[in-house]
């Protein structure tokens, strides 16, 4: 990249409010960076689209973030990472692009041959990248895939707990966990992290919950360091949040989730 201004923001995006769960950790790990968060709620949910459609909307978001001056991109979305990261990295060879991956490895290593529930969007679960990741740890754990149709939509409405969420989770999980001992669960979509407490409650005691937010934040720090792109400032960075839907309500929800 030519003449990058080190105080330029790191662009972070997701299909909506999900990636704010990653931004929450990014601002802890990189307190002096400026961030611009792009919630693409106008195109949510990504997880019910085809890989080609997600690549197309993700490319538009990256283009917008570059116009806004982003010096690096964090794809705070498992679905967009599996569908579009390889394409975007090929297209923008000089731009650090950091993605998300379901936290399969820590979950598979949390006990002696654990049974692990993997909650993710239907598209993430269908993708080859996910199948390869699961295959890598197949001798360490038993995995149960749970495509969570409709969960992103609830969270985009601001529903992260309460009766509606509890009964959704009961219906979703019943077929997958009845009569089995579950040792761990992977939150393989950044939206689900916002509903972590409700998911913990639905799964009951003794189930360890894993997500990829901290891993992605640390990888972002590493990649910025490596590229000489860390902001040398010693003041706390600024955060800007935008949303493609133009909805004031979603912007309010975004700040609420970010500050939770
Ligand atoms: N938050 C996204 C993820 O991590 C996707 C949600 C969606 O389906 O739009 O997979």
Notable features of this structure?
260 residues; alpha/beta; Rossmann fold; 2 domains; 5-stranded parallel β-sheet; 4-stranded parallel β-sheet; binds D-glutamic acid
Short description:
The chain has helices at residues 20-29, 51-67, 78-91, 104-108, 122-126, 128-136, 151-156, 163-177, 196-203, 213-226, 248-258; strands at residues 10-14, 35-39, 72-75, 97-98, 115-120, 142-147, 184-187, 208-210, 239-243. The chain has 260 residues and is α/β, with parallel strands linked by helices.
Question: Any chance you could write out the topology, listing elements then pairs?
Answer:
Layout: E1 10-14, H1 20-29, E2 35-39, H2 51-67, E3 72-75, H3 78-91, E4 97-98, H4 104-108, E5 115-120, H5 122-126, H6 128-136, E6 142-147, H7 151-156, H8 163-177, E7 184-187, H9 196-203, E8 208-210, H10 213-226, E9 239-243, H11 248-258
Parallel strand pairs: 1-2, 1-3, 2-9, 3-4, 5-6, 5-7, 7-8
Helix pairs in contact: 1-10, 2-3, 8-9
The structure holds D-glutamic acid.
D-glutamic acid binds next to helix 3.
**Oligomerization state of this entry?**
single chain
Strand order of the largest sheet: 4-3-1-2-9
The helix tally amounts to: 11
Main sheet summary: 5 strands, parallel
Instruction: Give the overall form.
Output: globular
Low-confidence stretches: none
- Count of discrete domains: 2
Structural class: alpha/beta
CATH level 3 topology of the largest domain: Rossmann fold
Instruction: Give the name of the CATH architecture of the largest domain.
Output: 3-Layer(aba) Sandwich
What fraction strand? Answer: 15-25%
Query: Cofactors and ligands present?
Result: D-glutamic acid
């Amino acid at each position: 990249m030519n003449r990058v201004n080190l105080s330029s923001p790191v662009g972070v995006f997701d299909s909506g409010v999900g990636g704010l769960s990653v931004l929450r950790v990014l601002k802890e790990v990189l307190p002096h960076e400026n961030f611009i968060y792009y919630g693409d709620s106008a195109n949510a949910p990504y997880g019910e689209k085809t890989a080609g459609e997600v690549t197309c909307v993700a490319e538009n978001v990256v283009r917008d973030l570059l116009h806004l001056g982003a010096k690096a991109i964090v794809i705070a979305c498992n679905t967009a990472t599996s569908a579009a990261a390889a394409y975007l990295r090929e297209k923008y060879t000089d731009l650090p692009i950091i993605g998300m991956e379901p936290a399969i490895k820590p979950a598979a290593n949390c006990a002696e041959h654990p049974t692990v529930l993997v909650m993710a969007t239907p598209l993430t679960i269908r993708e080859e990248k996910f199948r390869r990741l699961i295959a890598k740890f197949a001798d360490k754990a038993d995995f149960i895939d749970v495509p969570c149709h409709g969960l992103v939509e609830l969270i985009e409405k601001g529903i992260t707990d309460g009766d509606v969420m509890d009964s959704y989770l009961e219906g979703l999980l019943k077929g997958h966990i009845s009569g089995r001992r579950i040792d761990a669960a992977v939150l393989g979509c950044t939206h689900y992290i916002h509903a972590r407490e409700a998911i913990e409650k639905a799964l009951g005691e003794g189930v360890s919950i894993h997500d990829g937010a901290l891993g992605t934040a640390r990888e972002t720090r590493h990649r910025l360091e490596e590229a000489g792109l860390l902001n040398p400032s010693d003041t706390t960075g600024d955060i800007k949040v935008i949303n493609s839907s133009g909805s004031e309500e979603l912007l309010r929800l975004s700040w609420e989730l970010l500050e939770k």
